[in-house]
Specification:
322 residues; Jelly Rolls; Arc Repressor Mutant, subunit A; 2 domains; 7-stranded antiparallel β-sheet; elongated; AraC_XylS_family_regulators; sequence-specific DNA binding
């Protein structure tokens, strides 16, 4: 359910303080200074779509700034993409000054100080993407933060239209559909960043490849969980299953097969142990996530050419599972 905060019923002398707190809860903590003389007026609505936080802001002229002190007290970092739907703004971050007009997009990083100056009443759509979900290299993010992107043509127009539609037209949907929509938004943003940073320096490897070792580590630490699957791995890393499979295309193995291979390797290693304290075949299978003994026996024989009991009896040593 969306969180909606408005100054409409707040006493005039308390409106600005209320607004500062409302922005801190809906967006991120920041300092707020009103630029007008009369009672301040503002409204902010925020909701979740998958792992995205999507907000709309409409307010009188103001200046907001996020300082190192605010950042130190924050538990999460986001990459923010805002669509200026009315009015203008000036964004300052990383030594850059971006003038943002109506329909333009702006990009900033909540993990670094920034300020945003809106000289008259304005409205904006703000999408916060968790940094780990974006997955772009730090150097690429720093090339686009503190910048404005025209929202009238090219990828900028496509992203602005998609984000606006997410806010205004998407009906309530299941968590799975919400996750796919969030993944699409992140992919569009990453494509925009790649386009804007192409040619700025030497070619970079795929900006998401750093996720692969993290995902492999996640799998290794959860091999004993029978529920471990491509779906659970994707959800844990805030990406879609489709994108997870794309990440592993160059690894030469699907995620499902990698999980099975790593489980079999650990089972084969344990079954090679000798002595009175050596675990039973069924105990080994259960410890490494195989809930069905018959299924375990079949896949083990397919991988190693021997049943688990034959492997133990032969005192085999661990080859690479296929």
């Amino acid at each position: 359910m969306a969180l909606v905060c408005t100054t409409a019923s707040v006493p005039d002398g308390e409106k600005l303080a209320y607004w500062r707190d409302a922005l801190g809860r809906a967006l991120v903590p920041m300092a707020v200074t009103a630029r007008g003389d009369g009672p301040f007026s503002g409204r902010v609505s925020t909701d979740r779509l998958g792992w995205l936080r999507v907000s709309t802001v409409e307010a009188d002229a103001q200046r907001t700034s996020r300082t190192a002190a605010h950042i130190a007290r924050s538990a999460a970092d986001y990459v923010a993409v805002a669509v200026q739907t009315a009015g203008t703004a000036t964004l300052l971050q990383d030594g850059r000054r971006a003038l943002v007009g109506e329909s333009d997009l702006m990009v900033y990083d909540t993990a670094r100080p920034y300020s945003l100056d809106c000289p008259r009443r304005f409205s904006a759509l703000v999408v916060h993407m968790p940094r780990r979900a974006v997955g772009l290299p730090e150097e690429d993010l720093r090339r686009v933060t503190g910048t404005a992107v025209a929202g009238t043509d090219g990828l900028g127009a496509l992203l602005a239209s998609f984000l606006t539609t997410l806010t205004s037209s998407v009906p309530p949907c299941s968590p799975a559909v919400a996750a796919r929509l969030a993944s699409s938004a992140v992919d569009l943003f990453a494509t925009l960043v790649n386009e804007r940073t192409a040619g700025d320096g030497p070619p970079e490897e795929d900006p998401h490849h750093h996720l692969v070792p993290r995902i492999r580590d996640h799998i290794d630490r959860r091999l004993g969980d029978p529920e471990l699957s491509p779906q659970s791995v994707a959800a844990a890393h805030h990406i879609s299953v489709r994108y997870l499979h794309r990440l592993f295309e160059e690894e030469g193995v699907t995620v499902g097969r990698l999980i099975r291979r790593r489980r079999l390797e650990e089972c084969a290693r344990e079954l090679s142990l000798r002595g009175p304290s050596a675990p039973t075949v069924s105990a080994v299978a259960q410890r490494w996530g195989f809930a069905n003994p018959a299924h375990f026996s079949r896949v083990f024989r397919t991988a190693y050419g021997l049943s688990p009991r034959e492997w133990r009896g032969a005192g085999a040593r661990l080859p690479l599972a296929g």
